[in-house]
Amino acid sequence: MRSGVHGRCLAIASSAALAVLCGAPAASADEPPAPTSAPSARAAMADDVAGYYRSERNTAFTFIGLGAVSAGVGTGLVATRGDFATGLGVAMISIGALEVLGSAFYAIQVGAELDHYSGVLARDPAQFKSEEAVHIHGTTSRFFWYRASELLLVVAGAGVATYGFVSDRDVWKGVGIGVAGEAATFFVLDAFGSARAVDYEEHVKRFDPSVAFSIGDGARPWSLAVGGNF
After folding, report:
1. Per residue, what are the HEC states of 144-202?
2. Which residues, in sequence order, are bridge partners of residue 34?
3. Is the model's pTM score more than 0.85?
4. Can you spell out the DSSP letters for 45-92?
């Protein structure tokens, strides 16, 4: 009889221990799970999407500002009517104006992409991964050509400036220095943009749309919930 009681006690103790490890409350099996505050994989990915596209939009606004400043300074230089200042000013106005227009278009495009991919992620995480993986890979691949063209402009500007110094033509000195300087600025800033895109692409690759998990909080900090399609 005593061994039977001991056996029942052992069984009850084992069940209670298993309930604790699994995060189930000992008081009532029907009590609903306590809310969790840790982000799921989808929520973490949503943060990554918002962070990347908002950073890109902020970068576009930065380029708009730089382009406007460049065009303004260039206008002032042209107004001095000196040959070197005119050449430098024309280069700064031309590139600055293109920078403002291109960056404004990009800011609008990035805003639309943020809305689109955030919506796809919320509706269908698997479709999001498939679609965004192709999109962001195209972006990271194009950065090579962006930076190559910028470097080519730096070399071309340096060549024009060299011609100006050799031929003692101040206008060409200014044009060459202006083009090389503007292109070098793009080349440096796009290094940060490229690194940001590569990092985001890695987050998209690691995202598993079939699994979501959260760690318990509050009354049950030891609990772990896992969900997915298996």
Report:
1. HHHHHHHHHHHHHHHHHHHHHHHHCCHHHHHHHHHHHHHHHHHHHHHHHHHHHHHHHHH
2. none
3. no
4. HHHHHHHHHHHHHHHHHHHHHHHHHHHHHHHHHHHT--HHHHHHHHHH
CA 111 to chain centre: 12
- 8 A C-beta contact, residue 30 and residue 223: no
Residues 6+ away with beta carbon under 8 Å from 223? 22, 23, 33, 34, 36, 215, 216
In sequence order, which residues have a C-beta less than 8 Å from that of residue 119 and are 6 or more positions away? none
* Model pLDDT for residues 196-213, shown as the tens digit of each residue: 999 999 999 999 987 654
Give residue 222's identity as a one-letter amino acid code. Answer: W
Q: What is the pLDDT of residues 164-204, one digit of tens each?
A: 999 999 999 999 999 999 999 999 999 999 999 999 999 99
Tokens 């063209």 -> residue: 149
Q: Of 227, 225, 219, nearest to 26 (Cα)? A: 219
pLDDT beyond 60 at 230: no
Q: CA-to-CA distance for 145 and 164, rounded, in angstroms?
A: 28
Answer yes or no: are the C-beta atoms of 34 and 66 closer than 8 Å: no
Residue type, 46: A
Give me the amino acid identity at 167: S
Burial class (CB in 10 A: 0-12, 13-18, 19+), 133: middle
The sign of the CA dihedral 41, 46, 47, 48 is: positive
